[in-house]
Structure formats: structure tokens, C-alpha cells
Amino acid sequence: MAMAAFAAKAEDVFPKWSDLTTWTEPKIWSDDHSPMRFAVVRSSATGCEPNCPERISAEGAIEAGTPAQLKRMLKKLGRRKLPIIVSSPGGNVDAALQLGRIVRKNKLDIAVGTTMFSDCWPGMKDCRANDGKGAAYFGIASDSGAMCNSACPLMFAGGVRRVVGGWAHLGVHQITTTHFRTTRQYRTTYRVVRGKKYKDTTETVTQDNIGYKTYEMSKAFEKRLSAYLREMGVGRGVLDVMKATPASDIRQIALDDMLTMKLVTSRDSLDILTQAGICRRSPAPPNCREVPANAKPAKTAVVAVRGAVPATPSARPAPVDNSMRFVLVRSSDPKCGLDCPEWIAAQGTITPDTQNIFRQLLDTVGGRRLPLIVSSPGGDLLSALAMGRLIRDRKLDVAIARTDFTGCKPQDKGCAPPDGFYPGVATDSGAGCDAACPIMLAGGVRRFVGPDAVVSVQPLVFAERVRSYLAEMSVRQHLFPPVQFDFADFRLLRLRLEPGTMLTMGLTTGPESANHLVGPTVCKTEPRPQNCPAVSALKVDAQFTPKP
User: Fold this and answer.
1) Cα angle vertex 143, ends 169, 62, to 5°?
2) Averaged over 511-533, what is the pLDDT?
3) pTM of the prediction?
4) How many CB atoms lie within 10 A of CB 181?
5) What is the dihedral of CA 508, 512, 514, 520, to 10 degrees?
């Protein structure tokens, strides 16, 4: 239904999505729709120890049992007042109201954000990596891609200080209420004693619970929500936006509007609650805790909703395991002889550091415009936007392909080519560009996707920002499907783009593949491409990591 609604609005711009796309197998890249889990997390920022800020991470859907879990967590903490960093698609409204009152009663601050755990994460079995470090969990808080939608803003309203950074998403919509009507049928037996009829037994034959939903907010419920928001010092404007937004949609509230509504207390981001430097103030905030170097192993501080599925390593990957890496490559295809093209291979997940690593590489190679050969499952949206602009600013071409290294490989210990270029060949087979990766691709001056490479898109937050970026890159603004269905499940949707779709929308500039940029014969064409030096004089490290 959502896709049909989108196509109806856009049919005068380009063909329907159903004509241009095919479904791919759903991939779960986030566990936002699983029950909310609470964990006490200590900052893992470099140079933070021995006095670091700590916080309560709250991520997942709000369920009926969630308030009890928070109460248990706060009871364990005693008098310590830690800010709550929340990311949630919403959930049970009554539970969200309870959570807001618990947060206010305990005088806690709250921010919208996520936690990237290091070493151990909630639900991981038998992790001993943090033993002796004074905390069960360490991680970095970020508002990039974080959300607080549907019922979550009601919980958020309970914070004393309430902040939503520029990269987070807070949205509301109409409340959905489910009513149940019970229908029972009975069977009664009688017995006759001395000519008189007496009731013997009555038993239930059938019992049906018939449920139906209503999207109209009752006056009684509206009055209840209005009283709650007034109790929390939040303006009625939040309720007005909720009523005006269909339950099938999400209305993101702009920061200026949140300030007017008093939903946030300042323009700050979660850094004011979690940044390592806050513990150097005098006096230090109450969420700072000094841990001596010889600390005892910490007890696990995590509370999950009963019945929740434990997180697995695939749901909480270590931040550096699959992060995007850049390698300088020279073709080893024997067809090119001694005059072989060179390129930058970019493979892995886009992280907040990706743009900085890439900038270092570009600054090192100077003004040479080497094409970027990319294969990535996506990752940090804001970093992808920055990458795309950097690619366009440096006037680089981009193609989706995988680089297969031959001979000396970057991952081999002690392998470092004398001129900094690793031998390899580019191939479409097995290459992919998913989620935020097409944002990077859009930044290229020339953009190619071969027939065997897979490019897929999904609904993204920051829709206005993405549309503005695509317009800047001369790509149709409706490249990504809209969020017009249950927001808790939108990330399960993957739409594979066909070659004709990508050309129609301007994501690709032609039908060619990566071979057009780095194939064995490109250095024999005129004018001679910049990535075809006769003898490379570059002396740089091929595999880049952030500078300390």
C-alpha cells in the first residue's frame, strides 16, 4: 500500500516503482524493533580515563514491561543520576507515559542517540574483555541515525534536560488504539425434581475476543495526553502535530519547532551529557566516575525486557571489524602490460570516521584524480553525505565493483609494495552498494554500475536533507522510497535498482561498468586518463587509518 501511494504521487515525474525495482531478501541491519534494553555504559573515548562520563543506554521498542525494567536499573544505581541516551521506534503509549514519569521523578536528563559498543555488548555471552576495567560496557554515544518516534517522545518529555542533536530524528503521529469486544455463548442444563425445574450447570460454549483499531483520538485520551505534557512543561503544539499526522506516517519535528514547543530545552546535542571533556569541569557532572587502574571486574549492568531475544555479535558488531578501508591499487591484468590503470579501492561499512580517512588519502595523493571503486553494505548516513560531497569536490569518478588483490595483499603481514600500490583487478561479480552507499555513488562525476553489481536502496531518515543532497548532485530526489508504513519495520525493506532505473533517476551516468574506468585498455585511449601513469612516482602508505 505504501509503495502504491508513493507511485501515485510521483507518476508524473518518473515511472512507477513497481516497474523499476525488484524485491531483494530483507536484511536486518538494526534491532530497533526488538524490546527496549537498558545498559549502563562508560565512555570509551580516547584520553578519557580515569574519570569518564557514564550513561544509561536505552534502545529498542517500548513494551508494557519496559517501565519495570527501568525501575530495576535505577534501583541498582542507587543515588547515581545518569543521563538516558534513547533510540526507539516507539511502542506502548501507556508504558511511554510511565517511563516519562519515572525519568522526571528521578530528575534525569535525556538525549536521543545510539551507543556503539566496544569489546562487549548487551546480550553477548561470556565476554571477559572488560574485566578489570571498572565497567561492564564501554562505548561511544552518537546521534547519527538515532530516532525517537511515535510513543518515544512521550518518554523523552520526562527528562529534566532534553536534547535532540542535528543528526537525530524525532517524529510523531496519530495514536492508534485497539479496542476488544468479548462475545460469549453459554449452555445451561436443568434437572427436574418433583416436577420442578432447577438450573443444574452453566458452561461457556464459545468465547471470542474481537479486536478493532481506531485512529481517532478520543477526547478523554487527548485530555490525558494534554495533562501529561503540561505536567512535563511541554507545549500543546506536540499534541497538535500528533493529531494532524496519520498513523501510517511519521512527522519529523524540526529543532526550531521543538524549541517553540518546549519539547527540547536547548539546541545542544548529546555531547553535553556524554562528551569525555565534561569530566574535567569543576565540579564534575554527577555522571562522571573515576575508576582506578586496578579496578575489579565489573558486574554486568544490563536489564532487558523479559522474553527479549538476546543481541548477537551480528546485531552489535565491533566498530572497527568491517569499517571501510581505502587501498591504492594498480591493475595486475596481463592485458595492460606495463601501462596499467590505478584506482582507489573502497570496501567495507561507512563509519563516522570514513570521511576523515578518505580526506587524508586524497591530501596525500595530491591533485591526481583516481577513480573510486566501491563495494559497501552502507553504514553511517551523515558520513556518506560528507563522502559524496568530498568526491564531487575533488571531481572523482565512481564505480561499484569489488577489488580482488593478487600477489601481495593488504591484509598479509609484512606486505607493503615499494611504490604503495597493491596489484589487483576490479570485478562486478559479488559487488554491492546498499543503504547509504548509493549516497556516496551519487557524488561521482561519472557513475557506473556493471550488470553483475547489486545496488539497493531503503527508506532513510533525514529525508529532507537527503533530497536536498540528491538535487545538488543532479539525481532525482525520489531515489529512496518514502517512509509511509510502520516505522519500526521500515529498515527491513530493500529495493534492488535495475540498470534502467538508475539511468532514469540519474544515479548512473551511463550503462558502462567499472571496466570503463580501470579496465586493461583504458590507458591506450586518448586523451590519456589521469589514472594511467607510465611509471608511478607515488610513495605513500596504501592502507590508510586515522592519524592520531
Assistant:
1) 60
2) 89
3) 0.52
4) 9
5) -160
